[in-house]
Amino acid sequence: MNKPSQKAIFKRILRQLKGYRLLVALTVFFALVSVAGNLIAPVFFGQIIDLLVDGTAVDFRAVFIKFIYIGVTIGVTCIAQWLMNVINNKITYAVVRDVRDEAFAKLQKLPLKFIDARPYGDIVGRNIADVDQFADGLLMGFTQLFTGVLTIAGTLGIMLAINWVIALIVFVITPLSLFVAKYIASRTYSLFRKTSEIRGEQTAFIDEMIGNLKVVKAFNREDENIEKFDEVNDRLTKASLKSIFYSSLTNPSTRFVNAVVYAAVALSGALMLVWNTPLPVAFSVGMLTSLLAYANQYTKPFNEISGVITELQNAVACAGRIYEIIDEEAQTPDADGELENVRGDVAFENVSFSYDPERKLIRNLSLAAKSGQRIAIVGPTGCGKTTLINLLMRFYDTDSGRITVDGNDITQVTRKSLRKNYGMVLQDTWLKNGTVAENIALGNPDAALGEIEEAAKSAHAHRFIMQLPQGYDTVLTEDGLSQGQKQLLCIARIMLCLPPMLILDEATSSIDTRTELKIQEAFARLMKGRTSFIVAHRLSTIKEADLILVMNNGNIVEQGTHEELLEKQGFYSRLYNSQFAV
Question: Residue 349 forms beta bridges with which residues?
């Protein structure tokens, strides 16, 4: 994946807000009202103090009126802040919804090559945990960043109007906190990004362990998995502590600068009052009180902004991981052609493919399968057998070369028209939430119940189906059937569709030997007149194939019939004999 820069990510977040201009305008308005209210209140407090210490009789009526002004100001400010927070929440979660929708929609369009090359847990983590982190940072940014900037500008302006000398002192000292915050923030982005990546790795590991818990227990891998989880968890702890430690330095550093500012205002203002320093404008105890309040108001946003910067660093890092998925290149769009009246002539012409450009898998592969032929593909694990099947179905696109069906380049026809001409049974079963009948009729939804039952009988699945509570109307659950029964339903699905081409990738791997023999007979009848590609590890099951392709390291190293390959005493012969070695 291409990693966008921090600046590019931030610009992109701002672009996401364009669809919510009205809400942004409203939150700006209420922020202005809120800041104005906070700025006006200290003026009234200063005026009250001047009324109390001017040396004459206290005008309680004037004091009471000032308190009414303060009450109204605080009330309006509170309402404005509440409305601003409500709108900010709406903007934030609307943007987060849009990002999630965009990321999920992109996942539907990404090629399987992208999904297969990455841990599922990491992809899930990006769409859930990272988006949540992004939402938290964005919400804090909306709530505090804008109001903080307005407060700084407003308080500085009022302080200049009250006493420009003290305002200048404040203006000179305060930017130190910004430099401190910027220095720390520039170093925390990479730390937060690393934390997000390790969190994704942890999510992927947990997802894998839960999904394969039976395998873990079968091989007694609990202790090893705990050790690995502890190692990942320990790295996440260290990365999180490091990022949080450095980011948490911002607040105390800026608070120290703010304390210095407050002390400078108090000291300089007190000296001016005690020494009766000549000033172009009147200066009183009430004005000093207001200035101290404004000094607090002026410096407080720097603390908040420093915290916001930390959260924004985390949010931008998480947003970057989401945008990486959104920016990933989608699968090649479908062409307009349709594949019809298929005979089943399939050809590979100098096909090359790899998951990683640095590691070549299939290179310059050429083969031709005539209509009605049974092509068996054998070879050691990782040699490219299943990848070849994925290329046939166009789950993956070739890096170079082309694949044709009846002379038609499969990239020039729609994927739907290509795939509806294949019947596919894999080791991994594909069942949906629905009844048994609906699952068998997945490729032929208009099939009658009688046709569905005949297909199930051909696949030797009818007997166990009738033992289910509602027979063909039984709604399947995730753990309701054994792996072998699921595979039988997938075989029945093919028996119902009768497509012109078949792909059988260890189609009977989970079925008992007796049933397998019967299904092999049914497959033999089914394959007559149909181009069939058979991937098998048990070489005894493909003796009758018209052509056996022996693959190793992505290349076809031998091809021929079973007898021809045994006579060569080559790679196939060694594979075959190894299955019967004592």
Answer: 402
CA dihedral 69, 71, 77, 82 (to 10 degrees): -160
As for how many domains the chain has, the answer is: 2
Alpha-carbon distance of 574 to 133, in angstroms, equals: 55
Residue corresponding to tokens 């202790």: 223
Contact 378, 542 (CB under 8 A): yes
Can you name the residues that pair with 337 across neighbouring β-strands?
413
Question: Are residues 417 and 556 located together in one domain of the fold?
Answer: yes
The lowest-confidence range among 121-130, 390-399, 493-502 is 121-130
Residue partners of 233: CB distance under 8 A and separation at least 6:
202
Which helix or strand (DSSP H or E) is residue 556 part of? strand 555-560
Please report how the helices 250-275 and 164-173 are oriented relative to each other, as an axis angle in degrees rounded to 10. 160
Q: Is the overall model pTM greater than 0.85, yes or no?
A: no
CATH value at residue 461: 3.40.50.300
φ, ψ dihedrals at 356, nearest 5°: -120, 125
Burial class (CB in 10 A: 0-12, 13-18, 19+), 172: exposed
DSSP 82-132: HHHHHHHHHHHHHHHHHHHHHHHHHHHHS-HHHHHTS-HHHHHHIIIIIHH
Phi and psi at 307, nearest 5°, equal: -65, -40
| Rounded mean pLDDT, 548-577 | 82
Q: At what angle do helices 285-327 and 6-16 cross, to 10 degrees?
A: 100
Give me the domain span that covers residue 574: 346-578
